[in-house]
Each structure stands twice: as structure tokens, then as C-alpha cells.
Amino acid sequence: MRDITAPLTWVWPEADVEGVAASVLSRELGLHPVAARVMANRGYRTPDAAKSFLDDALTGLPDPFRMKGLPAAVERLVRAIREEERVTLWGDYDVDGVCSTALLTTFLRDVGLEARTYIPHRLGEGYGLNVGAIEKLAAEGTRLLVTLDCGITSHAEIAKANALGLEVIVVDHHAVPETMPPAVAVLNPLQPGCEYPTKWLCAGGVTFNLCMALRKSLREGGWFSVVKRAEPNLKQLLDLVALATVADVVPLTGANRILVRHGLEILTAGVRPGVRALKEVAQLSGARITAGHVGFRLGPRINAAGRLDDASVGLQLLLSKDVERARPLAQKLDAANAERQQIERAMLQGAIDQAQGFVDQGARGLVLAQEGWHPGVVGIVASRVVERFHRPTVLIGSHDGVWRGSARSIEGFHLYDALKSCEHHLSKFGGHKAAAGLSIDPARLDAFRESFHAVTGARLSDEQLIPRQRIDAVVQPKELDVKAVEALQTLAPFGMGNPEPVLGSRRVVTSPRVLENKQPGLAGHLKLTLEPAPQLDCIGFGFAPLAGVTEAPVDLAYQVSVDEFMGNQRVGLKLKALRAG
Fold first, then answer.
1. Are residues 406 and 485 in the same domain?
2. Of 465, 492, 520, which closes a domain?
3. Where residue 308 falls among pLDDT bands split at 50, 70, 90?
4. Choosing a second label site near 449 at 20 to 30 A (CA), which of 79, 114, 124, 318?
């Protein structure tokens, strides 16, 4: 959690936008005034723009054939299907890679091709392709290799695969290198010349577009009549796309919003046996699944196996055909997640101590490293450090003498570009503007840290190092009823690029009360009752140190929800920021 006593820049909406544009949206589209203000302040300032955002019909998805490389990928896969070739799907070990692999495996199985799968071991093999495994797959008869959530930078490995008689299709979404790999087709919306409009798909989203195009091509070629199979119901695969998209923290706008909105419905229904078992261990059986559930409860469990040991457990779970077989796998993932949480807690304090030392020296970017830090958990801990210190952070750990790291960024700082400036110190790296992974020779650590400090020092201003609290709409507490909260829910799913709205109220009179935190050593909570009627309650978890500020009218930033108790509904507020009004 961030230091709530540290400086914070409040960003309030423009008054004319709230007044004029929001009024038009409310009148023309019938939106609740509070929801209309949020949309206007997020840039949807005309009825057409707002309607386009709110339209979440699957028919609104872009034509997949607008994606560069798709016709060649479809042609090659159709040939593999018709000729029953040996195809191997190589997925990354995170949620996106595992879900993409499960997605394409399921689709190919439904059209009559049993593809092999390969998920590298995170600690033993590292990220991306490796020559040893490629040689083994070639020797076992693979003729077509499809990479999922990796491969865009694997030029040498794909060249080796070609030399061994393997053709390769790359399905990826990470930053595109200057030289493209020698593949039959590369699917990545970020590559130059790609006309697909949603650029920040995850690999699961790219894979779904591939399946859409494959189904169309097979249909037009009469395949389903020949093999007497029903066409795959692609909507039933959207649970995998939603898991991948939310867990990979890509913007929930454009095609991503449509895919996730429908995917959450499939997750809620629990159509997939492995998902039902996963929901059981996450204590979500019967719950209406939200993006938050995916990000904090379902996704981490799938990720946990790959972070600590073998990501193929998650793949087996998602491909399970009955719940009884899926349950032991889900329980294994649940245990791995608990172990991951324990390791994370042990690493976090050491990382914070290191970070504080560099911050005290004026560092604008952080490179933290320690032998024994688990390489599978460094990404999560890096995110916690960014939340605490609001600086781009690289966290590096070791396993069997191999040093690997994960990096996380802040708003306005392109992490991949920064690492590229330091690449002469790195053995390998890849990623995008918000997150990246790398490997490094420990002898180069100090030089890399010095280089990263120089890059962040040159590219980050003092202002960028202060976290921002954006207010999506200014409201009077009396405007907040159940209808207002329900109207805001029409903007969901919430996540990267479409965060849960934060509302702001100025100069509010409150009655404060400090509540004890049941976790030893942590700050207490602050409960504010807003005056006058309807006397809403606003809870600030860990905000007790700011209790003294509430003696006078205050400015509040908060999120809203509807709480239900004994059949009665009541609007509740969750405090995000507080200052003297």
C-alpha cells in the first residue's frame, strides 16, 4: 500500500466538460448524470463516442482478418488440420500464455486436430523459446510450432527451428523488435502495417482472433461437413480470453472490453470444469465473477504454479473434461498460491528496505537484487514496490546461479524503451511499456543499475514521481443513491485503461471514528460519516493517521458500491484519498 501521508497530486475534472458534455450525454443517451460525468471526463464527450464505448455486442468485434499475418497463419494451420500434421503449441508460463494455449488446444481439438502442448519451466528454462526444447520437439516429429505469448524476439531460436524442418507461427503481443523473426506468420497488433484497431490485445485476444478466422476459413472450405463435426462455439472460449486479458493487465477498452464483458459471463456460468474447480478453491462458487475476482483470486492461482514450479498444472486444469479430475489440480494451484504469498511477504520487506536506501539517495528508478529472491515472485514484489515508492522498479532474483528479473513502471514512463537503452548490460529482455522481464549476468548488476538510474533520472521529472489521484466526477453526496451506483456499473468491466470510477466531493463535513486494524503493526482504519443526510459512511482502510485532518471540512476521493444487509441496500464509500478542504 502507498504511504497515505506522502504527497499526492489531485487531478480534478474540467468544469465545462462536467457541465456541457455530460448534460448532452445524459439527455441523448439516457445516462444517469453521475455516469455521464464520468464518461465525459474520460474523453467520451459526444453521444457517438459514448455509445461506441458502451456497445459491447460481440458483433462489434473488429474483423480478425485486419490483423497482419492472419491470412498466412490461417492457411498454414488449415493445411495442418487437413493433413493431420504434428503441431505443437508453445505457451508462456503465465496466465496469458497458459490460457492462450488452452484456448487454441481446445479449438483445434474441436475441429479434429490433437495438438501437443509445451510450457517451459520458468526456473529451469526461462522465458521464451530455447534451442534444446526445439531440438527435442523436432526429433519427436513436430512440423508446425505455434508460439503463444512469446516468440517475437526469438529470431535465432526460430531460425534454428526452420533449419530442423519446423515451420513457426508467432502469436504474441509484446514490443516488436527491429528485425522480425523468420516465421511463416507473425500475429501481433503492434507490428508495423497491422490494421487491427485494438493494439493492446493480450496473447489470448490475438489467439481468439486466430480462432475466429480459422473457423470462418474451415466453414467456407466445407470442413465441418466433411468431418461431420459441429462448428466450435467460440463464445464458450471467452472465459479463457477474459482470464488472460485481465490477468495480463492490458487496457479494457475496444475489443478487450467486449471480450472480457462476455468472458466474465462465461466464467460466472462455470461452463468449463476446470474453472468450476478453480472457483471452488477461490471461494467464488455461485458468485457473479468480476474483473477484480480474476485479477486477485483466479488469475494468481493459475499463475502460482508457473511462478514456483510447473505451469503445465494450470493448463491441465483448464483442459480438464470433468470436475472430479480438475479438483486435485485446483487444490494444487491453491496450495502453490499460498506458498507464493508466503514467499512474497518474506521478500517484500527486504525489497522495501533496499528501495528506501536508493530513494534516500535520490534515485528516480530502482534496481533491486538479492541472491535467493525467487525469480517467480519478483514481478509481484516489484508491483508492490512501485505502489509504495512510485518509481519504475526492476526486481532481480536468482536460481541455480541464473539471475532473472521483472520490471514494472509508472504512468508516463515507457519501460521497454528504458531497458533497450540499457540492453548492453542485459543477457535478454522483453516486454512492453508497463512491464518487462529480463535476465542478467550478476557481474553486470552494478553497471545496469547505474545505467537505469541515469535513464530514469533523465526521463522522469519531479512531478512524475508524485502519484496522481484522478477524480472522474465531482459529486454531492446527496446524489449517490443505488441507481447512481448501478449506472456506474454499466461502464464495467473495470481494469487497466478503464479503472473503477473515483468520485470526488469538496469541503465535506464528516464525523470521524478510528477503527482498530486487526492485523498487528498496521495502521488503523478511518470511518467517516458524511454530514448532512443521507449520512453515508466512508471507510478508509489504513487511513487512521489522517484522522486529525477531518476536524475541518475535507476533500474526499472515493469509490462507491452497494452493500446489502438483511435485505436492505445501502450505498457505501471506499476512501482513496483525503485532504483538508
1. no
2. 465
3. low
4. 124
